[in-house]
Specification:
about 270 residues; alpha+beta; D-amino Acid Aminotransferase, Chain A, domain 1; D-amino Acid Aminotransferase, Chain A, domain 2; 6-stranded antiparallel β-sheet; 3-stranded mixed β-sheet; globular; binds pyridoxal-5'-phosphate
Amino acid sequence: MPMVGSTSVFTTAEASARLQQAVHAKAVNFHAMYSSVLGGIVTDPAFMVLPLDDHMVHRGHAVFDTAMIVNGKLYQLDAHLERLLRSAEMARLQLPHTPEQLRQIIIDTAAASRQREASVRYWLSAGPGGFGLAPGECVSSSFYVMIFRAQPEPERSYTEGVKVVTSTVPIKPPFFARVKSTNYLPNALVIMEAKNHGADNGIFIDHRGMVGESSNMNVACVTHNRVLWHPTFDTILTGITVQRVLQLAQRLVEQGDLRAIKVADLPVAEARGC
Ligand SMILES: Cc1ncc(COP(=O)(O)O)c(C=O)c1O
């Protein structure tokens, strides 16, 4: 194996063998990946890789979304796909395939994974082509799908609830909060800050002292007089889960368990009192 200085230079065969050796223990949770660069699906984690020249990698010019396989079925895939397409439009990304083809690729990758319970994440990117900033250099936009087992929520989250803290990390400006782009640095900092304080997650607060959202989920509260109160969606991501919660909660209003559902600015002081 030739060396340059103290660093190895691999042949194609050696590099392929190295990719196989580099598969870590946690890759048992990675079940299948579709890559438009490969033009198909792989189930060997060694080949679940991206080209470094993809603008998603070096510029963050990409959007994504996550759905779930629950009991062998893709739950609310269409709602998640619609949000991906809205995000793609906001990020001015070209689609590499028609929406119907993208949907079919997601379904095919889920089927190839042979999983009945899993996370389904997919990314649309400006694509590979160089290391500049403007996407004009990209040869084609790219699409990736990953079927994986997410770390399960601890049992105590369901029995005792989760502990959240308000975050000092600046909230994203409304436009960037509403597009689900791959720029999740603020979101990662929110959860890290929360863990440092012994909490499970943190909540973005806007400059007016209103509740925004958590690092990767929406936040609502039920007030003492039984009003389910959620912030408006003008400055945060429109979560598919909470949309469904708001829909189902109508039944609780009809049954008299809730007095009302309110979607309006939610002051932190109000939420703390819930
Ligand atoms: C910032 C942010 N807010 C809210 C959500 C909740 O969205 P959903 O319910 O569609 O998963 C997510 C998760 O995707 C998120 O990343």
